[in-house]
Amino acid sequence: MTATNEGVDFPPPPQVRPCIFCNGLVMWPRAQCPPCFQRQVGLALIVSRDTRLPLFYREYEGSRHDSKLFSEVIDDVFQSMASAVGNQTNMTVVFDKGMNGGEHIAAIDSWSAINFITTCSTRYSEDLIHVSLDKFAPVDIEHNKQLPDSDRLLAWRIKGEYWGQERTVVVAYNPFTA
Predict the structure, then answer these.
(1) 102-109 and 66-85 are packed helices; what angle lies between their axes, rounded to 10 degrees?
(2) Do residues 36 and 22 lie in contact, with contact meaning Cβ atoms separated by under 8 Å?
(3) Using an 8 Å Cβ cutoff, are 160 and 125 in contact?
């Protein structure tokens, strides 16, 4: 049977009524209602690298920005990590540039056994984007070694003062995104 109008009964189009899930504020079929379609749940999850078991989790509204939650749970997260692996063990937290505001960095710095890796906006150090590629070296990973020289990921490691302390900074240059 072919999908033509001849001899085939197509279901009627869905009725457009107020969505009951949005208190009748939106006139869309349920499956297409933008507020319902975009409902999300966020999950903050810390997992042990060794056992792959969760050390901490917290569910939160999908419409809530991660950085707002970060401020509320950072101490709980670090306490959970410390109780699982011990206070004397160095731990590393990895987060994106949406979380690297001064208050978040200060919260991490208050824990002596916590290190961090983050991406950084050029607003923190605009001079780093004007450095000659002569200072950069190819990143020593197998995939990079297999690429032609012109396609290799390059990196430059320096120290500088960021967020009030001396930090190690790695600046990366990717020719595909430059």
Answers:
(1) 10
(2) yes
(3) yes
CA angle (160 as vertex; 94, 108 as ends), nearest 5: 35
In angstroms, rounded to a whole number, what is the distance separating the alpha carbons of residues 119 and 117? Answer: 7
pLDDT in tens, 106-130: 888 888 888 888 888 777 778 888 8
Q: What is the pLDDT of residue 178?
A: 76
The parts of the chain modelled with pLDDT lower than 50 are 1-5, 28, 30
Which SS3 state, helix, strand or coil, does residue 65 take?
coil
| DSSP string computed for 30-60 | GGG-HHHHT--EEEEEEE-TTT--EEEEEEE
Count of other CB atoms within 10 angstroms of residue 15 = 6
CB contact burial 26-61 (16+ within 10 A = b; e otherwise): eebeeeebeeeeeeeeeebebeeeeeeeebbeeebe
Could you tell me the pTM of the whole model?
Answer: 0.61
